[in-house]
Amino acid sequence: MPIKSLQSRSHLLSSTQAQLQWLENGIFKPGGLPSFAAKVNDYQNTPLRPRTLEILQLNLGYMCNQVCTHCHVDAGPDRKEMMSEATLEKALDLIRKTSIKTLDLTGGAPEMHPYFLEFVTQAAQLGIQDLIVRSNLTILLANKKYADLPEFFKTHNVHIVSSLPFYKKEKTDRQRGSGVFLKSIEALKRLNAVGYGKPNTNLKLDLVYNPSGAFLPGNQKSLELEFKKALKTDFDIDFNQLFTITNMPISRYLDFLIASENYDEYMESLVEAFNPAALDKVMCTNTLSVRWDGYLYDCDFNQMLDLKVNHLLQHIDDFSAVDLLNREICVSQHCYGCTAGSGSSCQGSVV
Amino acid sequence: MSRPYYQSQDLKKFKNITDWSPELGTKFFEYYNSVFQEGALSSREKSLIALAVAHSVQCPYCIDAYTQDGLQRGIERNEMMEAVHVAAAIRGGASLVHGVQMMEVYDKRSM
Ligand code: SF4
Ligand code: SF4
Questions:
Q1: Reported ipTM
Q2: What is the Cα–Cα distance from A61 to A110, expressed in whole angstroms?
């Protein structure tokens, strides 16, 4: 497993151009597999557009204490990009002025942001229905200063969504780094201890499963049952829901696909599993994603490919909810990841 | 160069068998899908049985398909390998148990 981000290795695929080249050419060249845009057009005759704005996803920065092999963010300890205080203020303002229901904080490890506590405290007072922190779990044990986070999350009724690629050590550690599994288990126990994931509390703890390799996730309900059974029996851990997420062919996962010679077959399987029913439920139809520097994207994946919203207003400084609804979503072949099988979103499968 | 006899791409054409015999093809695939539904056995158990049988009949398509199916279901490699050993044990055992026939004939014919 790599110990550094693609960026710090000056890897070719750290360039978004190089990634888009892969997604636009090769098996998707004219005469090959259909482009996502063409597929969308086959089914609905119009390009993909947002329906509404319900979820604001803020990527607080790309710094992370882990360097997972599949990371679509290319996050790691060496990444220094961080959202500025001014942009965080803008985001709070935006929430006040719109009817956003969900604020979704992600990274990297969002907890590593220097103003994380302040920001969450303020955001929690804005009456958002669902305040999500995407926590990688191990961060809770990474440093003494994070030890109080479970209590802090509880105080502000934060909804925790955490990655745990498998309920066993081997697969988890291969994807997320050695020792990650046992640390994640310890973190889950601490979250359980303050009430997260426990029946009869409103403290939601959801887990995210993503396949450890070049294959699609299985049925979300079946996997959830197995995770629940195994985590309960082996570690007495409780959680609420399991979200299955399809790995997106970008950044480090794209690098894995290419290096392991799985790229063509993986993309074929995504195209083959295209499910039109997932189309009107893909994330970008109700979400906006904000990059650390304030630029706006249709989703976190487009952010990583630097496909900014296809609109004159591309920055949080110029934000206008109504105007931004009037745009076409930027798509490329990675989008097949959102429509394969039961679909995939930050809230798991969609159909 | 001649085309390899088995090609992984061919699995995708499996459904085409229906073209030359729509009724039987359709019945087969309906039956096939019903077999793998949750029942007295879980789909997960059925997937492992399929993997074992695939090895027993040495069908490259089924080996591919049910290894991937197992990955998707979160079946682990030690579980898959144990299933393959079940196939090997039964196959090996099936050969070996015929040793009884050999012994019968041998003994009967010998003085
Ligand atoms: S997948 Fe999550 S935890 Fe892993 S490196 Fe990326 S941001 Fe960090
Ligand atoms: S990758 Fe982003 S833009 Fe493409 S379908 Fe998924 S959510 Fe929409």
A1: 0.75
A2: 7
